[in-house]
Amino acid sequence: MASGSDVIERPEVLAATSDATPARRWLVPLLLVVGWVLSVAWRMWLSRHIVMPIAHTDEDSYLNTARALAGGPGGFSSENDLLRRVGYPMLISPAFLGDRDFSDSYRLVQLINAMVNSALLPLAYLLGRRLLRLRRSYALLGALAAATLPATAFYAGVAMIDTVMAPLVVAWLLAVHRWIERPGPLAAATVGLLVGGFHLLHSRGLVIVAVHAGLVLLLFARRRVGPPAILAALLPVLAMALVNAAAIRYLGDKVYLLGSTPGGGTVEAVASVQGVVRVGAGVTTQLWYLVVITFGMAGVAWAAAVRELWRPQHGDAARWTMGVALVVTVGVAGGASVILAGITGKPLDAIYGRYVQMLAPFWLLVGLGVLLTAGRRVVLRRATVAVALLVGGGALIAVRLAYVASRGNYLRYGGFGAPDLMALTGSWREMRPVVGSLVGIAGLLLLVAAAVLVPRLRMPVLGVLVVANLVTMQVIDQRMVRPFVASSAPTPRVADVRVRPGERVWASTGVHYIMRFNLSHQVTWTDVRWFGDQEPPAAAQVVFARWAPGQADDWDGTAYGFVRLGGNPVQHWAAWRRV
Fold first, then answer.
1. How many CB atoms lie within 10 A of CB 146?
2. Sequence-ordered list of residues with C-beta below 8 angstroms from that of 182, at least 6 positions apart, any chain
3. Contact status, residue 167 vs residue 121, Cβ threshold 8 Å
4. pLDDT, mean of residues 352-372
5. Which of 23, 103, 214, 373 is most buried (CB neighbours < 10 A)?
6. Around 17, how many Cα atoms within 13 Å sit in the side-chain half-sphere?
7. By C-alpha distance, which of 282, 384, 399 is closest to 335?
8. Contacts of 235 by beta carbon, 8 Å cutoff, 6+ apart
9. ∠ CA 196-197-202 to the nearest 5 degrees?
10. Is 390 in contact with 437 (CB distance < 8 Å)?
11. pLDDT tens, position by position, 420-463
């Protein structure tokens, strides 16, 4: 056994691929099915308080598009022509079939989310068994830890694309591993189909498409695949791009876009020393964030993956899969930082971890695989790298925040940029990089101590990791989700102020945008358009306008022939009907 190997050929590791008694063969599939059902139920329970969108304007865009795809009215979208994708709205569009209240449709969206998001559990188990060669018990508990990771589970409760991305990442990398291990047109087509799914779902899929194209060319140059496999790998991506274009054509002008297309501003933002430094800081912050929320396991995994590239120990399939995952991680973090740097009129975030969160379960599993199968010296070396990343990353972020503050600016802590980091560091208004690093180091030391010093505690410590995820999600629910729900749900409901189906409804831009969006969602029979603070269009039969008694911007509908139906002066909105 070489001390530099990341995997020691222990009996329990060899047993991971050996025979099993017939009586036990059905046990793991049964446990996975039961776990998936419980996972769906847990996600639905977490989302029980979310009755209206809280992540604006992303949710509004997806929901309006989904409703239009189902044959209903459309609405606005914050997307732009270049990066527009309809994969997620297609997935949730069945929730808008038939005549039902928005709250019922939204609950169905959450159910679809929970079912897809929970698919991470069986996929993570397969990854643990096939790529990491873990024994069944380790693979099951590791999969449970990955499936309960807040970076993934949080998004099941809201109508956002991120609920699909983590399971898709694991499925894709599993398919890549299978393709390298057993090349063939079917395996190539599976990889291509999953890559096409990324392209259909979100613009960050462009990074994965680029990596996929590079992988195909490299495999061809190495004479590992032939023309049939290349076609099988690339044609599904083209097919998914055509599906996206066809769906956009079907929508026509029912969904109108409000987003600005990235252009010269993006180039200008990075075409300078300051711009490059800004992008580098963004990439560093996102990678540091992945190490923190996986309790150091991402750092351990990266060290093992780099070692695998230079000195492969586990065969070509593992080597290529790790290389692809590393390139995608850096590519997604870099691409997100470049795009965000070019957005004008929007304050910079201290962190925007949303795009890299989809990679957290994969790297968590790889890191756990190192801890559970490698020798003591190997684990300690990998853990040292993770500690260095946590310390160095935390220090650089602290310096960045202090430098920006010294120039009179403030990097905001976006509400959905990193909810798990907020909960772990106990800070909901400002970023605490030092605390985040300490949390990551503490978790890492606990996991390493259990794996190296007291092997019999490996299973209990994996259970503790699952419990930590559950507690973190509960904290997020209490401290973030419920306050958002309380501040964004209009009361009374639109139906309670006697707005009737079939009426043409407009909303004033004087109503706060969150309240305006959630009022509009309850109007399921028509697209609610906007007007300025003064006279509404002649076509409007009902309007939502600002209600602020005693203030200069209080809207008086009687001047335009309207009568107030009701509303909420505390939330500053009222419904008016034309007489």
1. 31
2. none
3. no
4. 95
5. 373
6. 10
7. 282
8. 189, 192
9. 105
10. yes
11. 999 999 988 889 999 999 999 999 999 999 888 888 899 999 99
Question: Could you give the CA distance from residue 49 to residue 37 in angstroms, rounded to a whole number?
Answer: 20
Spatial contact of 50 and 157, defined as CB atoms under 8 Å apart: yes
- The closest alpha carbon to 352, from 265, 269, 289, 278, belongs to 289
Note if the pTM is more than 0.90: yes
Give the helix, strand, coil percentages of the chain, each rounded to 5: 65, 5, 30
Query: CA–CA separation, 366 vs 305, rounded Å?
Result: 9
The answer, yes or no, to whether the previous bond of 57 is cis (omega within 30 of 0) is yes
- DSSP per position, 481-545: IHHHHHHHS-SS-TGGGTPPTT--EEEETTS-HHHHHHHHHT--SS--EEE-SSPPPTT-SEEEE
SS3 560: helix
Examine the pLDDT at 543 and tell me if it is beyond 60. yes
Q: How many CA atoms lie within 13 A of 211 on its CB side?
A: 27
548 has a pLDDT exceeding 60: yes
Is residue 493 exposed (0-12), middle (13-18) or buried (19+ Cβ within 10 Å)?
A: middle
Q: In terms of Cα–Cα distance, which of 280, 289, 333, 350 is closest to 151?
A: 289
The token pair at 316 is 């070509």
Q: Cβ neighbours of residue 318 under 8 Å, at least 6 residues apart?
A: 131, 177, 308, 312
Q: pLDDT for 164-202, tens place per residue? A: 999 999 999 999 999 999 999 999 999 999 999 999 999
Contacts for 496 with CB less than 8 Å, ≥ 6 apart = 566
Cβ atoms within 10 Å, residue 513: 13
Token reading at 399: 């310096």
| Cα gap 546→559, rounded to integer Å | 14
Residue 170: per-residue pLDDT = 98
Element counts in the chain: helices (H) and strands (E): 24, 7
Alpha-carbon dihedral sign for residues 530, 531, 536, 539: negative
Query: 397 is written with which tokens?
Result: 């972020």
- Cβ atoms of residues 349 and 153 within 8 Å: no
